[in-house]
Amino acid sequence: MQKVDVVVVGGGVAGLTAAIYAAKAGKQTMLIEKQDRLGGRAISNKKKGAYFNLGAHALYTGDAYATFRELGLTLQGKQPTNDAYGIWKGKLNTLPSDMKSLFTTPLLSWKGKMEFASCLTKLIKMDTRRFDQISVREWVEGNLRDPMVRNVFYSLLRAASYVVGPDLPAAGPVLKQLQNALKGVLYLDRGWGELIEELRKKASDLGVRLVTNTKVSSIDTRGGIVRQVICEDGTKIDTQHVVLATSPLIANQLVPFAEETSLHTWKEQAIEITAACLDVALKRLPNPKQQFAYGIDQTVLLTNQSRAAYLSDDGAQVISLIKYQGKETDSDKDLHELEGVLDLMQPGWREELIVKQYLPKITVCHDFMHMKRLENPGPAVPEIQGLYVAGEWASHGEVLVDAATASAKRVIQHMLALEGKEWNAFNEHRGII
Ligand SMILES: Cc1cc2nc3c(=O)[nH]c(=O)nc-3n(C[C@H](O)[C@H](O)[C@H](O)COP(=O)(O)OP(=O)(O)OC[C@H]3O[C@@H](n4cnc5c(N)ncnc54)[C@H](O)[C@@H]3O)c2cc1C
């Protein structure tokens, strides 16, 4: 029988962050991951000399960036240029990203250009929390008049949230993500796998016991108190604190009588967001001018991440394409559409192809702040003493990986608060930068 203060279930960004902060708080910590490596959805795979994330990944200047900096991670990589195209009626048009492109874009009328510029200027200084209770559509329709400006904003907000329809997402978090995007995003050298490696090392240096290849099968919560973690291989670990850094569905499966707890509400209210992702490594770019495009009347995005990050050992260009998916998905149709976008942006790409990766339907987030949400999940599961949740779905207004790190920190802060201890390093999620 083993005994530790804290067991973290799941070794993605949320689990690693929770384990690091638990160890920093002086807790004996064990992290258990079912896969044979850490990282969850933030891993990278090297194929024929090119580094592929699981779909395009950009680090925004939000909670995760601040957390990783606070932890001393190097985060090597660069900000990409903003020159962007908008795909409208099957054609490429310059998108406004600076004064010059604002004046030259054929997408907007003169009046539309003025409205677009004025809205962006307001957005930069806006307290986005004011819009947490209304949907993206309500915000757009209440603040923008020109139909084409609305279309362009829908496209930018879709890219910030990965959510196709504007009726579901709460506007505040998505506007905050767009605000962060306007400050510039970071593409990481060698992909997000490097970030995971840095987190792994940090956790290991702090004494976290990292266990991979081991699946947790249940948590013993007899009497409404966390007592033990039980793994599929029969291992049992005595503990008083468990952080479930898995999906809401798995969190429910691991806890007996979860239907009598808030875990059930959080699972039932969750709306999963998926995407189809095509990544290609090309020997060279057929058209070096066209490296970044938003779909305006198509729910797609293309970015050449190699324009900012080191993503291949031999100079190959790694381009990522995303098809934002709604409820109905069609793997072949999505691939065809993404290849069509590549044809438009990089005609002749097939002759330059070294290797490709196609993920027809990957979960981008298990849940987010949407208009049908009853409550924000976590940090504690109130019905069971010592049980916590973390993960990008346990968002209290942060988006994607920012929610993963922020929710993880909330857990440890809560744990310490119950012991009457303060955590000075805690940064409130949306007021830090
Ligand atoms: C295509 C795509 C694009 C994205 N783009 C961006 C982006 O541009 N910017 C951004 O900020 N974010 C982006 N994200 C989101 C980001 O990748 C996730 O928010 C983040 O990686 C989630 O981390 P997590 O720890 O919450 O979950 P996960 O990474 O899913 O980790 C959960 C872990 O729990 C483990 N586990 C599950 N069950 C058990 C069990 N029983 N026992 C032990 N272990 C278990 C799993 O194996 C997994 O490793 C993107 C995601 C995708 C898929």
UniProtKB/TrEMBL annotation:
Domain Amine oxidase positions: 13-272
Domain of life: Bacteria
Pfam families in the record: Amino_oxidase (PF01593)
InterPro entries (UniProt xref): Amino_oxidase, FAD/NAD-bd_sf
One GO MF term: oxidoreductase activity
Protein name according to UniProt: Phytoene dehydrogenase-related protein
